[in-house]
Amino acid sequence: MKAIQDYYPEELSHCYGCGSQNEHGHQIKTYWDGDETVTRFTPEPYHTAVPGFVYGGLIASLIDCHGTGSAAAATYRAEGREPGTEPLVRFVTGSLKVTYLKPTKLGPEIEIRGRVRELKERKVVIDSRVLVDGVETALGEVVAIRMPADFGKAV
Ligand SMILES: CCCCCCCC(=O)SCCNC(=O)CCNC(=O)[C@H](O)C(C)(C)COP(=O)(O)OP(=O)(O)OC[C@H]1O[C@@H](n2cnc3c(N)ncnc32)[C@H](O)[C@@H]1OP(=O)(O)O
Fold it and tell me: Coiled coil: which residue ranges (predicted)?
């Protein structure tokens, strides 16, 4: 099964969170599991906050790209299209909110499960849960905005 990120074109595959071409990045992969999107990531020992627990910025980063990837996957699904078909659907982060419920144990695989709360043409809101060993440790909300064709060009 291909992940939504596997359909990103080369020029959009350099993101630190989800770009398959970024050798220093997380290279996350997001898949459908029924009505939920799922990303799994095993942190390294250096992803430490305090010994034994995962750095919160890593969790935010995973929620971020899980959210934008889920937004793209959900849009293709809502339109009844295969991912990667034209016109390409890509999202950037408009806002990112993370609520840390309890410390996230460092070592086991982290699972992020997302649900679509709102889906419009230009804006998709993804709610995420972060789980380790079945324990919910954080919640995320990503407002994903359709990437403008001229993204970054006016800066
Ligand atoms: C695809 C491969 C790359 C994936 C990368 C994924 C993760 C990333 O790190 S992306 C990088 C970080 N993000 C950015 O740099 C984005 C910078 N911001 C921008 O470019 C623009 O502000 C952008 C595109 C988000 C919004 O553009 P803008 O023209 O203002 O949108 P606009 O038409 O006003 O708003 C559309 C809708 O989005 C909403 N919206 C826009 N910005 C936000 C925001 N920051 N928070 C919440 N909602 C927002 C608006 O309220 C509007 O909603 P509604 O339709 O309900 O009224």
Answer: none
The number of folded domains in the chain is 1
Residue 65 lies in a domain: yes
In a domain, 99, yes or no: yes
Interval 120-138: pLDDT, tens: 999 999 999 999 999 999 9
Bridge partners of 145, per DSSP, are 92, 123
The tens digit of pLDDT for each residue in 58-81 reads: 999 999 999 999 999 999 999 999
Q: Is residue 128 part of a domain?
A: yes
- Give the residue numbers spanning the domain of 82: 4-146
**Which amino acid is residue 113, in one-letter code?**
R
CATH code at position 43? 3.10.129.10
Q: Is 7 in the pocket of ligand 1 (CB under 6 A)?
A: no
Distance separating alpha carbons of residues 145 and 48, to the nearest angstrom: 31
- Side-by-side strand order, sheet with 135-146: 30-33, 36-41, 110-119, 123-132, 135-146, 91-100
Q: Give the atom of ligand 1 at the shortest distance from the alpha carbon of 152.
A: 20
Q: Would the CB of 123 count as within 6 Å of ligand 1?
A: yes
Asked whether residue 85 is domain-assigned, the answer is yes
